[in-house]
C-alpha cells in the first residue's frame, strides 16, 4: 500500500481530484490532500471541503511518509500560482532526489518543470505552459498521456478527460505493474487555411451590415489591417 501527497488548487478541478482519489482508494492506497488553504472548493460547483493542512505546512523532512506526489489543477490563477512557488518546487525536488513518483495533470504539469529535464511530459497546450516546460528542457509529447520511468517515474496527462487513465497509471506504477494505457502520435498534421475572409464571405457580411467593409493599410508596411 502506497501513501500519496496530493497537492491541489484551492479552487480545484473536481473531476480530476475526485477521480484520482476514488481510484487510489479503490486500489487500496492512502493519501493526504493539501492546498493553498484549508477550505477548498470545487471550481465549478463551489462546493466547499475542509482539509487538515496547507501545502506550506508539509516540511521537506516529511517526504519519507509518502511514496508519491501528485499535483491536480483547477482555477487557472490558483493552479499557476504553484508553478513558481519556492516551497512546492523544493518539495518536488526532494521527491525526485528520493526517486519517488511525481505526477501532474492539465495546467498543473508546468509545476513539475524544474524536475523534468529530459523527461517526457504531456500537457495542456497553452503557450506559457509550453514555454515554461521548454525552459527546463522537458521532452514535450503530443500524446495525451505520458509515463516516463526515469528518476522514480513521472506521469502526466493533457486534460481532465484523461483523469481515469492517468490515475490508473499512477497506481500501476506504485504497484509495480506494467503500463496499461499506451498512446502513439498519429502523425496527422492539420493543413489549416488562410485566416483572411474569402470574397463570398465578405460579400455576405457586407450584405448583412448594409454597407461595405473598407480594408485599411498600414502606412509603413503597406499591409492590410484587419
Describe the structure.
The longest helix is centred in the first third of the chain and has 13 residues. Helix content is 28%, strand content 20%. The chain has a seven-stranded mixed sheet. Strands 2-4-5 form a three-stranded mixed sheet. The chain has a two-stranded parallel sheet with strand order 9-10. It is built from six helices and twelve strands.
Q: What's this model, at a glance?
A:
The chain is α/β, with parallel strands linked by helices and 226 residues long.
Roughly what is the average pLDDT, rounded to an integer?
92
- Series of H and E elements: EEHEEEEEHHEEHEEEHH
Identify low-pLDDT runs: none
What proportion of the residues is helical, as a percent range?
25-40%
- Put simply, the count of helices is 6
Strand order of the largest sheet: 6-3-1-7-8-12-11
Quick one: how many beta strands? Answer: 12
The biggest beta sheet reads: 7 strands, mixed
Q: Which percent band covers the strand fraction? A: 15-25%
Distance between the termini: 60 Å
Molecular shape? elongated
Structural class: alpha/beta
Task: Report the radius of gyration as a whole number of Å.
Answer: 22 Å
